C-alpha cells in the first residue's frame, strides 16, 4: 500500500462503502418491525455518497499536492462534506422519527423545517461545487503539460462527468419544477417511483465503482525495486 496512488487508496475505502450503499440489511425491513433498518439504509447511502464527494475533492487536490497533512489537506474537505453528510442523515431520519411518534405525520405538510434544510443543503452544496471547480481548474492548469498526469486527469474527469450528467438528467426528469418546492429535499429520501429510477441510480454508481476498481487495481506483474517512487 505504500506505493499505491491516491486513487488506489481511496478505492479501497469506497468499495466497502459501496457494499453498505447496496443495503445488505434490506431483508431486515420485512423481518423486523422497527425504524432502525430504514435509518441505517439512509446512513449507509449518505456515507457512500459523501465518501464519493470526498474522493473527488481529494484526487483533484492530491494529484498535484504531495503534502497531505490532515489539518491542511483533509480538514477543510471534511468540514464541507461532513455538513452535507449531517444534512443527509438528518433528512433520512427526520421523516422516520416523526412518523413513528405521530402516525398522522405527513412530510409534505412540514414545509417550515424542510425549507430550512433545503436552504442549508443548497448553500453547502454550492460551496462544494465551487471548491471542486477550483481544484479542477488548478489541476488542469498545472498538470496538463505532463503526459502521465494529463491522462489521469482526463480519465477521472470523464467518469465524474458521466456520473454527474446522468444523475442530474434523471433528477430533472423526475422532479422538474418541483425542485423549487418546499418538500423537494424530503422527496429525495422517499421511495423510487419505478424500477427504472432504482436501476439507473444504483446501476450507475455500481458500474462507476467497478470501472475504477478495474482500472486502478494493482498489476499482477508489477515490479517493485529499491528505487520505486510512490505517486
TrEMBL record:
InterPro entries: TMEM181, WLS-like_TM. Keywords: Membrane, Transmembrane, Transmembrane helix. This is Transmembrane protein 181. The chain crosses the membrane at residues 12-36, 42-63, 75-94, 114-137, 158-179, 199-216. It comes from the Eukaryota. It is found in: Membrane. The keyword Transmembrane applies. GO terms for cellular component: membrane. One of its GO terms (molecular function) is toxic substance binding. Residues 1-220 form the Wntless-like transmembrane domain. Pfam families: WLS-like_TM. It comes from Mizuhopecten yessoensis. The keyword Membrane applies. It is a multi-pass membrane protein.
Amino acid at each position: 500500500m505504500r506505493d499505491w496512488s491516491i486513487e488506489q487508496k481511496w478505492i479501497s475505502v469506497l468499495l466497502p462503502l459501496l457494499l453498505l450503499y447496496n443495503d445488505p440489511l434490506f431483508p431486515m425491513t420485512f423481518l423486523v418491525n422497527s425504524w432502525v433498518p430504514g435509518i441505517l439504509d439512509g446512513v449507509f447511502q449518505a456515507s457512500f455518497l459523501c465518501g464519493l464527494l470526498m474522493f473527488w475533492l481529494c484526487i483533484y487536490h492530491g494529484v498535484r499536492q504531495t503534502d497531505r497533512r490532515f489539518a491542511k489537506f483533509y480538514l477543510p474537505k471534511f468540514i464541507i462534506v461532513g455538513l452535507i453528510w449531517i444534512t443527509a442523515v438528518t433528512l433520512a431520519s427526520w421523516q422516520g422519527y416523526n412518523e413513528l411518534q405521530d402516525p398522522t405525520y405527513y412530510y409534505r405538510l412540514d414545509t417550515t423545517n424542510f425549507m430550512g434544510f433545503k436552504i442549508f443543503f443548497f448553500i453547502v452544496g454550492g460551496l462544494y461545487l465551487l471548491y471542486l471547480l477550483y481544484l479542477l481548474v488548478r489541476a488542469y492548469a498545472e498538470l496538463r503539460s505532463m503526459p502521465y498526469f494529463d491522462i489521469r486527469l482526463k480519465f477521472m474527469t470523464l467518469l465524474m462527468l458521466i456520473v454527474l450528467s446522468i444523475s442530474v438528467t434523471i433528477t430533472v426528469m423526475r422532479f422538474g419544477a418541483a425542485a423549487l418546492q418546499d418538500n423537494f429535499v424530503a422527496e429525495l429520501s422517499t421511495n423510487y417511483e419505478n424500477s427504472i429510477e432504482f436501476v439507473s441510480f444504483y446501476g450507475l454508481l455500481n458500474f462507476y465503482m467497478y470501472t475504477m476498481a478495474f482500472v486502478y487495481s494493482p498489476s499482477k506483474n508489477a515490479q517493485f525495486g529499491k528505487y520505486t517512487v510512490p505517486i
